[in-house]
Structures are given as C-alpha cells and as structure tokens.
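Input record (one chain):
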Amino acid sequence: MTKKETDNKTTQLRRQGVSRRGLFKGAALASGAAAGGLVSGIIPSPFTPRAASATDKPLKLGFQAHRTGIGAGYGRWYERTTKAAVKLINETGGIGGRPIELIVEDDGTDPKRGAEVVEKFANLHKVDFVFGTLFSHVVIGSAPRAGELKMPYFVVSETPAVPNGQFSRYVFQAGTSDVRSQMTAIAKWVLDKLGKKVTMIFPDYAFGYAHRDYFGAAVKANGAEMKELIPIPPRESSFTKYFPRIPSDTELLYHVMVGPGVLTFVREMGEHFGNNRPQIFGFIDSLEGVNIASPGLEFLEGTYFWEGFPRYADGLPTRAADFYRQKVGMTDTGTYVDDPKDTAYASHMFGCWETLFAIKQTVEQSGYVDPTAKDKAAFIETLENIRWFNEGIEHPQGHKLFRGGSHQAHAEQYISLVENQRLKVVHKTSIEDSLYEPEYDYTKQPL
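The corresponding structure, as predicted from the sequence alone:
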C-alpha cells in the first residue's frame, strides 16, 4: 500500500471512529451503561474471577437449532460447539457465578417454525436470551417476533439484515461477521488476483441475494465487470442446465451454494469445464461439511475459497484456536475427533462459541439478573457500548470490532487455495478491510 493509500485509509477509519493505533490495542472499551473494565479475550480469560451476580439461579439460554431441514448439517456442529462452550463456562464458574441452563428447540430450518420457537422460548421456557439461528430466511422469519416479545436475540448468521436495520434493538450479530463485511474485505484481492470479468452463481433466496448485491457492488467499485448473474433454486438437485449460461469470456466464476446438493453442484461444475476453466472463487459454504478430497472434486485443485475460520489447523496456528478445536472435537484436518467422515462446518460454527462468551461478558458487565425491562435495557446498552472482542479463548477466530449502532461484529477473513486436496490459507484480511459506512443505528430506537 502506498503512503497516499495508507493516509486515505487512516482518514476513512477516523471518520468511522476507528484509529489505526487502536485497531489492535488488545483492550476493549465498555462505556455508557457498562460497568467498566476491559473486554476479556486473552488466553486465561474464562478462568479469571468475575463479578458475582445477585443470584445463583441458572441463567436460561434458548438455543434455536437447525436440527432438521436444509440446515441440519450446520445445526449438528452448531449444537456440538454450543454444548462445548456451555460446558467450559459452567466448569469455570458460570456467568457471574450462575450456571447456564441450555434449552434446545429445533426450528426445522423453517421461517414460520422459527418464529414459533422464539415464542416458545419466551412464553413457555421463559429464557433470558435466545441465540443460534443461521440461515438468513429463518433469521428474517424469527427475529421480528423476538423484537415484539422484547427478547434479546443473537443470530449466528452472516445476514446483512442485522446491520442494515431490518430488525429491532433486541437483535444482535455479535459473534460473527456479516456477508457484506466479508465481501468488502476480500473483494479487492480477489478481483486484482483472479480476474475482472465476473459471473456469479448463487442460491435464489436472501443469503444469495446478499452476495449478488454486495459483491456486485464491489465488482463495480473495483473497476470490474459483472458478465452474468445465475440464481439457483434452493432445492435444486442437478445443475448442468445452468452452466451453459456462463459467458465464454468469464475470467472469474464466483460461486456460493449451500444445502444438500452442493457436492453434486461442485462435481457437475467440474464436468462442465474440464481443464478449460476460468479462475474460480467460492465461499466455503459450498463445501462446508464436505471432504475436499472427495472423489469428483479433483478439479477444485488450484481454485480459491473464502473461509471464516480455517478448516486446517495450520491456517490459524494459535493457542486459542488449538484450545477451541480440542474442546469442540475438531481435529487438525477439520473432522470430528470420533468420526473422520464427519467434516466440521468450521467457518460458521465458531460463532456459537463466541456469541456465548459475548453474552457472558455483557451479563457480567451490565449486572443483569432477571428478564425485567430494566435489566434487559442495561444488558442491551452495555453491549452497544462494547467496542472490541479480543482474540483468545473466548474469541478464537480473531479480534472483532463491534459496532454498537449496527449491532454487528467485524472480523478478519481468510482466503484459501486448494492445494494437494487441502485448503491452504494464502491471504488474511484485516478488520479495516471489512469496514463499510454503517447503514443504520439501532441505538436511536426506544427500548
């Protein structure tokens, strides 16, 4: 980066309230309604003494799980990760001395059922907080009900619907980054290195539209050209009829597919192109839960993927990441310790772990005791004033900048190359690469 570019970036960050010196200070500010102190996240943080609560009764957390439906694979690893985090927190003193009581309900990866689950958590189980939703259409179906019930609701998704203001002050995305920030972070590198004439293949629903709109905007902003947009129905089982729509002068094919048909999608894409293919970049969503060395995927050699958390341990060789892997049962090659055929959903499931520790920290700093209007307000205002979550046991994916106005975390991202049937990290973005001008400020809403 030239000096002029550096100065321009610094000016941009200052306008957004971020100083380059403060970007990785290792301390986070909690002001306003916060009880004060540093945001934890250094290696020993779960084992350090915490402020005692006024009660020792269990804190009830409702985990909205995709146990069935199109998101079941993600749901399995989300639940595995969640239970590991809850076990660790309870073994090390709980939340302000209170144990977590985890209550799980399956939403079937269905928007209507998701809203019903939120209502069940609030009115039947009477939980303190709800978390866990991944698929964007389920988030969009569930989060408004959480707002109506004044239930603090933490999505573990990538949906831009949170930071762009579609929901209420009760909805947060504190443990993971959103699609727009991910694409903002990786766009320049991808377009500069892989090609300027782009065709996109994406699922025909909210998650896919976010990629279409935000990466499409990044293509234009970086002087590239969008050649074709190809939406795919979410329950499609064969994809060969779509590939002829890819223009012959495409330099970069950008794909992001999810669901049970992804292995077929990737294999058929390889059969269509053979050895004569453009550069290919995908979001690892296309292969989450899939062994990269599976038969039929050989053509992926030399293609690139976004990863939120590197599948292979050598992509993020930190003590915190190693500790997290061990606790959730993920091996160095990204498989389940008890079943090498069960590949982890590594780039998403860490959000459950980090969300639980964000809730823990905010409860302890705010003095939250019961789900009263007063305590909920103190909790929400405290979280809105937290600035940083620091890399460590509580946040093994890396440092996060939390924007209280948009209720959104911003994180480092990874670009990996398929080499020798493995994913090799070749580029790590900075948090500042992911920043965009905030679209909405939830703090202006009444509680």
